[in-house]
Write a structure and sequence with these properties.
The chain is mainly β and 116 residues long. It contains no helices and 11 strands. The strands form 2 sheets. Strands 2, 4, 5, 6, 9, 10 and 11 form a 7-stranded mixed β-sheet that branches. A 4-stranded antiparallel β-sheet has the order 1-3-8-7, with no helix packed on it. The chain is globular.
Length: 116
């Protein structure tokens, strides 16, 4: 059974930092592309950052230069370092693992709130 478990969310002041982590089990982690999505109240879920099996990354324009995605295949984890956080970054953040024609899996999400 596949499990993706996010951690590291919380309340932070504007300008602060958080590091999210997602631990995967039940999949051959190294062959899956990994993404972070977020969903704010009343809005659609949106892609924040992604990392391929080869380590190539992509980011939403709204987070470029502030967020960094990374993966550790030895530990089956993917992380999202979030710096210079803004109130508009407030959302539930979800980890996603996907492999074409094989599987697409989601974690349960972790809440990030940016507020003074």
């Amino acid at each position: 059974q596949v499990h993706l478990v996010e951690s590291g969310g919380g309340l932070v002041q504007p300008g602060g930092s958080l590091r999210l982590s997602c631990a995967a089990s039940g999949i051959i982690f190294s062959i899956y592309a990994m993404d972070w999505y977020r969903q704010a109240p009343g809005k659609q879920r949106e892609l924040v950052a992604g990392i391929t099996t080869g380590g190539s990354t992509n980011y939403a324009d709204s987070v470029k230069g502030r967020f960094t995605i990374s993966r550790d295949n030895a530990k089956n984890t993917v992380a999202l370092q979030m710096n210079s956080l803004k109130p508009e970054d407030t959302a539930v953040y979800y980890c996603n693992a996907h492999l074409f024609a094989v599987g697409n899996y989601w974690g349960q999400g972790t809440q990030v709130t940016v507020s003074s």
